[in-house]
Design a protein that fits this description.
Order of helices and strands: HHHHHHHHHHHHHHHHHHHHEEE
Structural class: mainly alpha
Number of helices: 20
Number of strands: 3
Radius of gyration: 28 Å
Bound molecules: zinc ion
Oligomer: single chain
Distance between the termini: 28 Å
Shape: elongated
Strand content: under 5%
CATH class of one domain: Mainly Alpha
Largest sheet: 3 strands, antiparallel
Length: 388
């Protein structure tokens, strides 16, 4: 156990003891100090000996079953040690006690909800948290936990509802999360061919954060579904420039839009617009062409050549393979195919917040649940453990 975790449990245990003592004073009951076993348990926690702390707390509970603070400390310890069944039993016993003061019942109910969350029993956690979210000291933490549950269950409408209640309670507006929920709802409506509802959700998403490329991509998808290639092209134009990390999302849509118009030959001209915006954008497009299997297009030969020359690891490879250092078209394509095969075998995206790696793109990191943190890895950065 890390010191930070021990300190958290320790402070929880002390608060529990103090609250019990306050409650006894309020009820006019005789005041009692903490038992020696309880203090021994705390001492073991301070000295990072959680096993001995558990033993001491269990002794304290056996000798004096009414020591609520000890039971809270034990329950929290069990949960943190991964012994969720024991934590659930401990907190369930507290919740079911008829003589428990309302403040302790709420504390025990919230602790039990945390146990259920840790155990992945989201429906049971939700039931308890919905009750706690109605009012009382656990209202705001319960609402935040409910957001987490509804995100995991992909119940976007309820997640929006929880954020709106939190915002009305003075918590900061989570504009990016809300815009993503709207886009999720738009995609659901689009798949159900309800384009009017999908457009309405995109409009709400676009009204949120100042720059929100996902809503542009979803709107372009709706336009493509409705065979409006002109609108799709005009929407997609700015995305690679403003968000080069999304080039892999844009390129296949651009190709589809041009195919709809029967003008695939315009791809070089369209891409030249982006490539002229600087090497970061040009490299992102070249990398996207490799990863999405679009490197065979004559339109991309020029972009790929520039990328091969700029990326140090790829440039070395080209120099080793090509004596005159200027690979012909066939060599450029062969190298793109080899890079793609290599890229498909390893992680292609990594979360900038928690380091979670994945082979496919996610708007929300499956590891830490942050939005917009998954970034594509260049061929030189790829590798590491693949966790998806
Ligand atoms: Zn993450």
């Amino acid at each position: 156990m890390k010191w930070g975790e021990a300190a958290l449990i320790l402070s929880g245990a002390l608060v529990g003891w103090y609250a019990t003592r306050r409650a006894r004073i309020d009820l006019g009951a005789p005041q009692k100090g903490p038992s020696s076993d309880y203090l021994t348990g705390l001492n073991f926690l301070v000295n990072e000996q959680p096993d001995r702390a558990v033993e001491a707390f269990l002794r304290a509970v056996a000798l004096e079953p009414d020591t609520i603070e000890t039971q809270f400390a034990l329950g929290a310890l069990f949960r943190r040690r991964g012994e969720v069944d024991r934590a659930i039993r401990m907190h369930q016993n507290l919740v079911e006690r008829v003589d428990l003061l309302p403040a302790f019942r709420e504390q025990a109910t919230y602790a039990l909800a945390q146990d259920y969350l840790k155990a992945g029993l989201y429906d049971r956690a939700e039931k308890l948290l919905v009750g706690l979210a109605e009012g009382g000291p656990y209202r705001l933490p319960a609402l935040k936990d409910l957001v987490l549950i509804y995100e995991l269950e992909r119940d976007w409408a309820k997640a929006i509802e929880m954020h709106e209640i939190l915002a009305r309670s003075g918590k900061p507006d989570q504009a990016i999360a809300l815009a993503h929920y709207r886009c999720e709802l738009a995609e659901l409506a689009r798949r159900a061919q309800d384009f009017a509802a999908a457009k309405a959700q995109v409009k709400l998403a676009s009204a949120g954060p100042r720059q929100f490329p996902r809503s542009v991509l979803v709107r372009a998808d709706i336009a493509l579904d409705e065979a409006d290639a002109t609108l799709a092209l005009s929407l997609l134009r700015r995305v690679p420039v403003e968000s080069p990390q999304l080039a892999c999302e844009v390129l296949p849509r651009l190709v589809r839009a041009l195919q709809l118009q029967g003008q695939e030959e315009r791809l070089p001209a369209v891409l030249a617009e982006f490539a002229g915006e600087g090497s970061e954008v040009a490299d992102a497009i070249a990398h996207a062409a490799i990863l999405t299997g679009n490197a065979e297009s004559p339109a991309l030969l020029h972009v790929l050549r520039g990328y091969y020359a700029r990326d140090p690891s790829v440039a070395e490879l080209v120099q080793a393979l090509s004596a005159d250092r200027t690979p012909d078209d066939a060599a450029v394509r062969a190298l793109a195919r080899a890079l793609r095969r290599q890229a498909l075998q390893v992680a292609r995206y990594r979360c900038g917040d928690c380091g979670f790696s994945a082979s496919t793109f996610f708007w929300q990191c499956p590891g830490c649940k942050s939005w917009d943190t998954m970034k594509p890895l260049g061929p030189g950065e790829q590798g590491g453990s693949l966790r998806s």
